[in-house]
Amino acid sequence: MIIYVDLEHERVQKTEQWQESFAKRLKVKYRLEDLSGEPCLIVRYKHMTPELVRELHPRAVLISGCATEIDYYAEKDLSGLRQIMCEPAQPTLGFCGGEQLMAQTFGIEIAPMGKLGADVDDPYPRWDYAQGMAREFGFTPVRVLAPHPLLEGLGPAPLMFEAHYWEAKAVPSGFRLHASTELCGVQMITHENKPLYATQFHPEQWDDEHPDGRTFLQNFFRLAGITS
Amino acid sequence: MIVFVDLEHARLAKDHPDLALASAASRLKIKYRLEDLSGEPCLIMRYHHVTPKRLRELNVRAVIVSGNTTEFEHYPEETLASLRAALGEAAWPTMAFCGGSHILSQTYGAEIGPIGALPAGQAAPDHPSSKLAPGMVQERGFLPIHIIEPHPFFEGLGRAPVFLESHYWETKAPPSGFKLYASTDTCKVQMIGHESKPVYAIQFHPEQWDDEHPDGKKFLENFFRLYGMQSTP
């Protein structure tokens, strides 16, 4: 059993995006099952507690991103997830909003990358999310700064899916930085002695033309001792 | 832990991309509903992954089987065999909706098939899903069912509860060992239950309740309560 935490806020259920958001979670769950060979339980962020983890004893925990700003969440609803990040009993990997939550849990400020300059053309005019802000969107080369088993077989600049305008402003103490893009410094961090891994990018959103995310996740499951 | 079996076929994404998105989203929505009603974590499992061994290993407290939009002709029998074994073993409370109810009743020996062709001059219900079965008799939308035999699942629901219907196939008659609990005028086998196992085939969709039609929620609460599970506050 592995756990995939749905970090999306329940407010999305009342928006037009709910179907896309829900369908994406299910798609990623099935991908994670196919890569790991393990059943994958989706758990809403509010329900993640150390007790649940002790009871279910997952072999890995993966944390989704979210379209809702972390500031919007009630802190008490995040406290279980934060505790699990502080004392991870299993390999734990956060994507995008999940990465930012991990960085924040370890004391780092998270915030928008910045406003788009008045003289700068928006490179993604058709992406209807946080327009006017500096954003990364689509398959983007990520520059590898320090090797890691998760990056094995991926070369110096793997192509990963990006979809964000917030970022972690620095590398938390106890973590090491492994990858950056031009716009966003903290693209991949890992903890020096806890099994904690986080990416600003979305390896789980690979497609047939851009399969690097798939290799990344295969590396993660192998590192976690799980093979399909 | 409870298991929600996803009976949809992967080809739906190619056949009907619009319906596939709605279907996938609805699976997760229902999983969360089932968790809230039962107080148990709910693992969604693709139909061809379900085996009696996996269910035993997970120590499941209930197995719920979804409906499906893809025609059964696209499900090779070998991909359904282990699900049928689990439905037959039923060492756990089992409830199957719509397409799932057809697989369940067929597994127990019932005949399944389309309700029939529409008589000349009669139109299918005005509903987006009616296009899936042009010219066929079908039930779509929230409709009252008649209770034939009382059952704890109907507690608090009166004599003609309203549930979502969306189908044009049916179970032709209750298989041996099953009792009929509810019907509509169009489709006789709306709910059957096994006489000695906790196994139920439900033609309607209690899991698809909405604020104006909450009977499905009550029905599922009754199911979970009967088998010792409770909603979480």
Report on this model:
The complex is a heterodimer of chains A (228) and B (233). Chain A has 228 residues and is an alpha/beta fold. Chain A is built from 5 helices and 12 strands. Chain A has helices at residues 18-36, 50-56, 75-86, 97-105, 212-223; strands at residues 2-6, 40-44, 61-63, 92-95, 110-112, 136-141, 143-144, 159-164, 166-168, 175-180, 188-191, 196-199. An 8-stranded mixed beta sheet of chain A has the order 2-1-3-4-12-11-10-7, sandwiched between helices. A two-stranded antiparallel ribbon of chain A has the order 5-9. In chain B, the strands form 3 sheets. Chain B has an 8-stranded mixed beta sheet, sandwiched between helices. Chain B is globular, with a radius of gyration of 17 Å. Chain B is of the alpha/beta class and 233 residues long. Classes of the chains: A alpha/beta (228), B alpha/beta (233). At the A-B interface, helix 1 and strand 2 of A face helix 2 and strand 2 of B.
